[in-house]
Amino acid sequence: MKADRTLDCVGLYCPMPIVKTSQEIKELREGEILEVIADDRGIKSDMPAWCEKTGHEFLGIEEREGEYHVFVRKKG
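^ thats the sequence. predicted structure below, dont judge the formating
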């Protein structure tokens, strides 16, 4: 999946990946996609819950070599 912006959260643990995602997504325009790279397993459940709470669209997670690549589309 092609992202408009990538946020590296490797080495950060809950709640920092969500905190940084919340800050970073403010910089995107509606409809753009943010890729968050993290190695905290908690992101697998935290990000879908955060998207549901904030209204952004959770597009999925890809696991690659111990890292999670999470994709979120910014909504209004």
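Residues 29 and 74 are 7 Å apart (CA to CA).
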